[in-house]
Amino acid sequence: MPSILAAMRFTLGLAIALAVGSATEIGYAANQKPLPVPGKTTVYQRVLAKRDTILHAAPGGASQDTVRPFQPLYVFARQGDWLQIGRSPTTAPDGWIARDRAIEWHQNIVVSFSNPAGRERQLMFGSNEALMEVLRHESPIAKARELRRQAVTQGPGAARGVVAVEPEEAVPIEQNFYMFPILDWHDEDHPMSGDLMKVLKVASLPLEDEQRQEAPEEPATVGVVFVIDTSRSMQPYIDATRRAVSSIVERIQRSTVGQYVRFGAIGFRDSVEAARNANPPREIEYRTKVFLRLSSSQTGAQINGAFATIKEATASTVGYHEDAVSGVLEAIHMPEWETAGKDGGPIQQRYIVVVSDASPKPQHDPSLPESIRRLGPQEVWQQANSNRITLASIHILTPDGRPNIPMARAAYQSMTPATEGGQQLYFSVDLTRVNTSERDFDPVIGTFSDFIITEHTRSVEQLRNTQRERQLTALEEASLAMRLRWLGERRNASAPELIEAYTLDVAIENPLVPALDVRLLVTKNQLSTMRDVLAEVVRVGEQTQGELRENEFFDRLRGALAQMAQNPGSLVNTQFETLGQAVGEFLDGLPYRSQILDTITPEQWMNLGPRRREVLDRIAAKQQQYEHYAANDRLWTKLYPEAPDGERVYAMPLSSLP
Predict the structure, then answer these.
(1) What is the average per-residue pLDDT within 61-81?
(2) Cα angle for residues 113, 380, 447 (degrees, 5° grid)
(3) What is the mean pLDDT of residues 492-520?
(4) Is this model's pTM higher than 0.85 or not?
(5) How would you write 99-157 as a 3-class SS string?
(6) Alpha-carbon distance 344 to 146, whole Å?
(7) CATH class held by domain 4-107
(8) In this structure, are strands 123-125 and 162-165 parallel, antiparallel, or unpaired?
(9) Which range has highest mean pLDDT (26-30, 252-256, 525-529)?
């Protein structure tokens, strides 16, 4: 994930742009579009309104209304000390505000709190001096912990210099949207490790004035779906998984935990068509198969019976890779996640455990379904994450699969990345060594059964106390993160209302753990533009792969985008020199650099040779990911009640950019 250090770089570029933009005073013209950012044609100047900003009918004229604090506004004209502003680039301006009541904000960078699992709650200080006093204390971690205790038990005013404490729960920006702009920053070295960190001057404001709900913590329903490779050679591990689940069922039936746990099981193999067309032909029965669906009415006999029917294939599939992606995606999009919880509601804690001895099929494999052919492991994880699911993987390392191990490890580690605290949810069982056997798989799968039983016996506070005493295991931390997120949604947790405060971009006690996530606030129109442009890049790129036609790529792409630009709502830039510029001007100058798109010029495209296929696959994966974002209505927020659909926004992680 990009660091806050990168996120701060936009401030300098912004200052230069403002110096140019403010030199021209432009009056209002009927049907005028917002002013463009200097040097751009499809990116408009924007500001954030400060608190108690008054909207006027004309510069210095009669007051019309107040403006919502931190409301992003488009600038239609600049006249002396006044700005003509509007909430949408496609409607008439709303009025005028004084320039000193606005914070210039041309790049849509926001930050959000990371999930606090794996770290202490972040402190917000009223001044830089108060924060520096803690950092330069002889025991800064102990000092911060004492201030946190005082602020939590007696209120922020009781803790010297503290104006707010991050909420105990996670603050899901998708659920309770909040603006969190960075006003200033400077570098500091961590007082104990020497690692570089950022001291941030920030402001924040929830979008809605919803009251916090003091909902008590209740036992959460847990859903665990095992996605199991059922190709040949997997039967010993299928049996071990079945034994582990059977043990869980037996144990939970003797306790109160059983009413909160749901199981699912999906088997995956490979393309049935490819197997039938092989020489000799073979029958592998299915690509994916649901053996057990999540349900609130499951009995122990039903669970054990379903797992007992999972068998390895009697015929071999084509090639060593198996279609794990199809299996995981089927698990991610099981509708029962939303209906198999308590009283027919959603399941709060969601786990998918992938079990395989082979790598997923490569993205470009023609035997993959067309709808997922471009998705890579990271895009699969992003789909799981946006559906509030934790992915874990158990990778079985076998002697016969030794050459495949590095490829499989890279894929599953990317699909099941580290927790907020940096712990891997990728587990491996090494059977390549002497004196190992299939039974060595049992302790690994056993960690999941023990976890499912024991984690329900502890509250969030107990997990927090355990975290202070020792590092939580990866599964414990994942559980705590999901609990905090669920509590945050139930209690309407939101960022504290801060006009000015100082904090760090990392946890005081561990500078390697981020406390804030960098995001790009995109409108649905902007996402649609990126999606459509990426689709055109792939289409034209594939049409010009012949050795004598590669020089046509940029010319034909410009022609295709020129056609798109005729759409009045399009944000396409047809005068691009790199693929990154083609995707959208609003990405240019961000604290983010694509390793591929920003550097590919016509000449470099010609020189890529076989790597062009890799580039097109990566671009296509992002394009399919944007399709998923666009279709997930839960991600999109209206910044004002009358906002048209295309102006709804999503705070998209920078890691999702192409």
Answers:
(1) 88
(2) 80
(3) 83
(4) no
(5) HHHEEECCCCEEEEECCCCCCCCCEEECCHHHHHHHHCCCCHHHHHHHHHHHHHHHCHH
(6) 43
(7) mainly beta
(8) antiparallel
(9) 525-529
Cα R_g (the chain), whole angstroms: 27
- 258-272, 292-306, 403-417, 571-585: which has the minimum mean pLDDT? 571-585
Model confidence band, residue 423 (pLDDT cutoffs 50, 70, 90):
confident
pLDDT bracket for residue 567 (50, 70, 90): low
Say if residues 452 and 224 touch (Cβ distance below 8 Å): yes
Tens digits of residue pLDDT in 440-472? 888 888 888 778 777 766 778 878 887 777 778
Residue in 382, 396, 383 with CA at minimum distance from that of residue 440? 396
CATH number for domain 222-457, candidates 3.40.50.410, 3.30.160.150, 3.50.30.30, 1.10.3810.10: 3.40.50.410
Residues ≥6 apart with Cβ < 8 Å to 285: 269, 272, 313
Strand partners, 522: 650
How much helix, strand and coil, in percent to the nearest 5, is found in the chain? 40, 20, 40
Give the three-state DSSP class for 362: coil
| Residues 406 and 354: beta-carbon distance below 8 Å | no
Q: Report pLDDT for 15.
A: 27
Distances (CA, A) of 281 to 268, 342, 368, 388: 19, 47, 18, 41
C-alpha 519/C-alpha 523 separation (Å) is 13
Q: Please give the Cα distance from 124 to 129 (Å, whole number).
A: 12
Give pLDDT tens digits for 172-188. 787 778 878 777 778 88
Which of 120-124, 276-280, 616-620 shows the lowest mean pLDDT across its residues?
616-620
Q: Which residue has the tokens 């009283």?
A: 343
Residue written as token pair 């004229």: 61
Q: Which amino acid is at 543?
A: Q
Distance of alpha carbon 44 from alpha carbon 53, whole angstroms: 21
Give 308's pLDDT tier (boundaries 50, 70, 90): very high
Mean pLDDT of 300-306: 92
Taking CA atoms, 436 is separated from 137, 281, 521, in Å, by: 52, 34, 51
Which residue blocks in 455-505 are alpha helix, DSSP H? 460-469, 474-490
Residues 6+ apart with CB under 8 A from 457: 257
* Contacts with 461 (C-beta within 8 Å, 6 or more apart), sequence order: none
What are the structure tokens assigned to 157, written together?
A: 């005013």
CA separation for the pair 127, 500 (Å, rounded): 8
Question: What is the phi/psi pair of residue 425, to 5°?
Answer: -105, 15
> CB within 8 A of 191, min separation 6: which ones?
135, 136, 137, 140
| The two structure tokens encoding residue 67 | 């403006």
The contacts found for 461-469 with CB under 8 angstroms, 24 or more apart, are: 467/118
Strand boundaries in 274-328, DSSP class E: 288-292
Query: DSSP state, 191?
Result: T
Q: Where exactly are the structural domains of the chain?
A: 4-107, 115-211+488-514, 222-457, 522-656
Residues listed for the chain: 658
Q: Which of these, 574, 575, 577, lies nearest to 565 by C-alpha position?
A: 574
Distance CA(344)–CA(339), nearest Å, equals: 5
Is residue 438 within 8 A of residue 240, CB to CB? The reply is: yes
Closest CA to 318 of 271, 385, 356: 271
Distance CA 657, CA 350 (A): 26
Neighbours of 469 (CB within 10 A): 8
Q: Which residues pair with 85 in a beta bridge?
A: 75, 95
**Paired tokens of 261:** 């746990």
